[in-house]
Amino acid sequence: KILWGQNDSINQSGGTQRYWELKVSAWQEHALPASLSWQFFDYSPHNPRQTKIAHSSPEELTLKVSQVEIKSPSITRYRLCAIQGGVLPAFEAGAHLPVEVKLANGEWVERHYSILSSPHDNRFYDIAVQRETAGRGGSLQLHARLKNNATLKAKAPRNAFPLSATGKHTILVAGGIGITPILSMLRVLVEAQASFEIHYTARSQKDLAFATEVYALAKQQAHFYSSNPNIQTSDFTITHSRLNIEALLENPDAGTHIYLCGPIRMIEAVRNAGDLLGWSPGQIHFESFGASTSHTDKAVTVTLQKSAQVIEVQAQQTILAALLEAKIPVPFDCQRGECGMCAISIVKGEAEHRDVYLSKEERQQQMCVCVSRAKSTHITLDL
Q1: Distance of alpha carbon 359 from alpha carbon 349, whole angstroms
Q2: Which of 35, 73, 155, 195 lies in disulfide reach of 98, CB 3.0 to 4.6 Å?
């Protein structure tokens, strides 16, 4: 039975307000054939993710800051523990922690930060926050408020970027603050004595905030890149150039998996190179920072074809946020342009695509409204 139009204040249904009610009358159980092997990798991105409730209150955690470490002028690492001590809900490498943040205007929002510590030690979660002076305000508030013994509310870790155990060799690629989920994966691979290499790139030395830690774990399997010509270290070499993506991917191998986290431009470059060089899309796994707003963004008028409604989207507002504010039901999940749940057909106008989900062909007809905008001041959507 499908339950329509249900109240869903915490967005468990991914914006659909729709639930299934199932009654099991019978089932059959069979042993798997010996020749068949399988592994759960991830849920379909088209289905809202269900989070296991690890505490009595719905997935809520109260955490205490036990350590603060300044890694660079803009990046700070925070160690978070259970306020009463003890272990925290388990997580896997690549997971992120949803954190409640109070903005300067008093509004409470949820921000997601990758866990960079080892999933084999759940006495604490380590996260790193990069101060974004031109961002939405969440990182500025955390940098100002999170001191030793400060508390914050969070939800149990979620994972949309899991590490597969099927690959014979793993290539890790991190751009800037994208090192955070990659660092957790690196710990797992080192502990498992697996075959891997890691490539860590940033604009300057200060942006390679975890380089020493990466080298301590990976040794000769670690490679560092920066366009800053004045970098000198006593322990390891930093290549004074950008990461050569084509050279990295020049020998496709069916047993190799690539995991990358960083700016959308870097992710698109890797995916494009992979297509040209013969890599299977299933071998390239990625997580982005999400598309950032730009000072050149303009207000957009969105016309809804089916309802004839006209929605005004402010320059620093996403189309998705404006639609939800107008009570237009739109499915969504990641809000980073990765899952494709919010993809909507374009009736008239041209989109400025900022997602990493849609193919070149799909972009001719659709747009992900959580991150993408219109190239002009008007666009009509099939809603």
Answers
A1: 18
A2: 155
Q: What local confidence, expressed as pLDDT, does residue 54 receive?
A: 39
Q: Among the residues of 85-236, which ranges form H helices?
A: 138-145, 179-191, 211-218
Q: How many CB atoms are closer than 10 A to CB 85?
A: 8
The CA distance from 372 to 302, in Å, is 13
Report the candidate in 50, 61, 177, 147 with the shortest Cα–Cα distance to residue 110: 61
Burial status of residue 86 (CB atoms within 10 A of its CB: 0-12, 13-18, 19 or more): exposed
Burial of 150 (0-12, 13-18, 19+ CB in 10 A): middle
Q: How far apart are CA 340 and CA 337, in angstroms?
A: 7
pLDDT of residue 126: 98
pTM of the shown model: 0.76
Q: Element (H or E) spanning 322, and its range?
A: helix 319-325
Region for 288 from its dihedrals, namely left if φ exceeds 0, alpha if ψ lies in -120 to 50, beta otherwise: beta
- Residue 31 sits at φ, ψ, to 5 deg, of -75, 140
Q: Under a CB-based contact definition with an 8 Å cutoff, are residues 363 and 380 in contact?
A: no
Number of residues that this document lists for the chain:
383
Q: How many CB atoms lie within 10 A of CB 195?
A: 13
Burial of 365 (0-12, 13-18, 19+ CB in 10 A): middle
| Cβ pair 259, 273 in contact under 8 A | no
Question: CA-CA distances (angstroms) from residue 368 to 49, 249, 284, 295, 360?
Answer: 18, 28, 21, 20, 13
The per-residue pLDDT for 380 is 96
